[in-house]
């Protein structure tokens, strides 16, 4: 069961395909202890025995004491989604979340992910089938509508009636994909219009930004994605347990420690030097600090792990 004290505002690590694998999640838990972590989305296959792939099963099994693991499912086949939710719970999921935001959400001829926001009857069928079969708690992660926010507002009664425990709003429409910026006036309006706890997500990259979204929306908690991938300490900054802003020197030291530890973990998790390097370089895309640009460029050009780690050691 995923629950939190009513007077605390949980900080959640967002699901991010290609990034929030079990290695990165365990590092975040050790470094900054998010209140909740999510798997990357688990694509649910229809029609076969393997509704969840072997690798996704490994991801789900990797739970950590005291930090609830949310398994996020995406799919279009109602029966397969129900089976997948049961498997995920059997494997140790603390909570099931359904992805209603992915802009690439079509599976075969059927709608999945963000596309389901345009299919209220299909969505109603999916939620009605899932709720009685999920023994623990259950949530949805949505965008601010497909084309515009009126689509989201009109779905709120359905969400309330379907017995979900909370709603995560990434305050961009599906049509926007990742362009423009998250509009948290929409999050605030969702908070006002629904009795469900709402978690605000989108473009929270700094302490000031996070505190502003919290105050502006009155959300029940925040979800951090790209901002936390580039700066795991954002969790502690928002809790007031780390400097709100680090100096450039402190930032480099923080980044070095983070990347060194991730290098060690990824060498155990992934096979082959080039795959490990590629996974590490994916993280670098989310480090925005202008004063680190030259160093990051050098890290991106590293052709092997020895060079990558030498650049980290030199900088620390
Ligand atoms: C590379 C990448 C992968 C993502 N994968 C997922 C995913 O698997 N499931 C999901 O619900 N959202 C996914 N998202 C969306 C994020 O969870 C989050 O909603 C979005 O990035 C906005 O939050 P942010 O500005 O804090 O990053 C992904 C985003 C990115 C950039």
Overview of the molecule:
With 316 residues, the protein is an alpha/beta fold. Helices cover 45% and strands 14% of the residues. Helix 3 (78-91) runs parallel beside helix 4 (120-130) and helix 12 runs antiparallel to helix 13. The longest helix has 22 residues, at 248-269. The N and C termini lie far apart (41 Å). Flavin mononucleotide binds next to helix 8.
Key attributes of the depicted protein:
binds flavin mononucleotide, 11 strands, 316 residues, TIM Barrel, single chain, 2 domains, globular, eight-stranded parallel β-barrel, alpha/beta, 13 helices, two-stranded antiparallel sheet
Could you give a quick summary of the protein structure above?
This protein has 316 residues and is α/β, with parallel strands linked by helices. The protein has 13 helices and 11 strands.
Number of separate structural domains: 2
Task: Quote the beta fraction.
Answer: 5-15%
Can you tell me the overall shape?
Answer: globular
The major beta sheet can be summarized as: 8 strands, parallel, barrel
| Low-confidence spans | none
Helix coverage percent: 40-55%
Question: What string, H for helix and E for strand, traces the elements in order?
Answer: EHEEHEHEEEHEHEHEHEHHHHHH
SSE arrangement:
Elements (H helix, E strand, L loop, with lengths): L10 E3 L8 H10 L4 E3 L3 E2 L10 H8 L7 E6 L3 H14 L3 E6 L5 E2 L2 E2 L8 H11 L6 E7 L5 H13 L4 E5 L13 H10 L4 E4 L5 H11 L3 E4 L1 H5 L3 H5 L9 H22 L3 H12 L8 H9 L3 H11 L1
Parallel strand pairs: 1-2, 1-11, 2-4, 3-4, 4-5, 5-8, 8-9, 9-10, 10-11
Antiparallel strand pairs: 6-7
